[in-house]
Predict the structure.
Amino acid sequence: MRILSGIKPTGRPHIGNYLGAMRQHIELQNEGHECLYFVADYHALTTIRDGETLKEYRRGVVLDYLALGLDPNKVTLFYQSDVPEHAELQWILSTVTNPGLLERAHAWKDSVEKGKRDINAGLFMYPVLMAADILIYQSDFVPVGKDQKQHVEIARDIAIAFNNFYGETFKLPQDKIEKEVETVLGTDGQKMSKSYNNTISIFADEAEIKKQVMGIKTASIDLKDAMPIKDDIILSLYKQFSTPKELQELEAKYSDGGFGYGNAKKALLEKLLSFFEDAKIKRAKLESSKEIEIIMEAGAKKASKLAWQTMEKVYKKTGLR
Ligand code: ADP
Ligand code: TRP
């Protein structure tokens, strides 16, 4: 089974990214699949307008993943732009893509509906580049959060369109989404996202994480009363980082009353800090390491080889060679 996913380097990761995508990516490396993960730097160009920033974020994603446990001996990790055939295939795929398909893409529709001024044709083409990323490696599964489901479906539709025109060329990919964490909620109760300013960071310093956790929106109830367990953001996050017994204990404190949201937030904060403590130390050590560049070069080499196998077929079928 070939697993592929891309990670956009647009800032520091939050626990929504971790639970929805990164954790799954790391676990899959131990399940005997062939895993390809890349830093989607071409995609990031639709929003990041400063070379130094992009460079820093690109490397940052690699540090994040390695610190959290991704093992470059078990997976192929690379920068998307080190395999420029992704962009070449994007163009070829765009010629079989109905623009209506792209107009219906949630992310694009959302930008247009909100009247965002900084839209660009790159954002419109985003799903086609993503299709190229996926199809060029003949990927079986694409582990992502729910917000990316439609993009994987579009990749499938584009593969079908190409196969219809030119004959069987691309494998049809499928998304791989963990139901329980498909949409992790942020501190304001909406989907946790960098764009909503409601995130809880993984690698920020303790004071910042504390501020984020203490800012979680809660119901206003009297301290002596029981706190409702259902749909509670604190509990839903706590659950992901604790044992069932620890969760039960916290739930009991909710039901007993006299506990208060301040204490619940403190319990979550402690959990998060201890859960990511080792990763933080590892990340700081890796920061000045020259190893990263070697890992990325080796990854690009492996990925290029695979990408070429597909491109040769594409050239032949389209008549480009
Ligand atoms: P953001 O919305 O913060 O910009 P990205 O679009 O960079 O996040 O998402 C990176 C990965 O993390 C994707 O696979 C996405 O599906 C997943 N992801 C992002 N936010 C969440 C969330 N709140 N819950 C579950 N998965 C998420
Ligand atoms: N669009 C994805 C995101 O915003 C990142 C991405 C780019 C991706 N190319 C991909 C994910 C290919 C999976 C497969 O998170």
User: Anything to note?
Assistant: The mean pLDDT is 96. The chain has two domains: 2-183+290-318, 204-275.
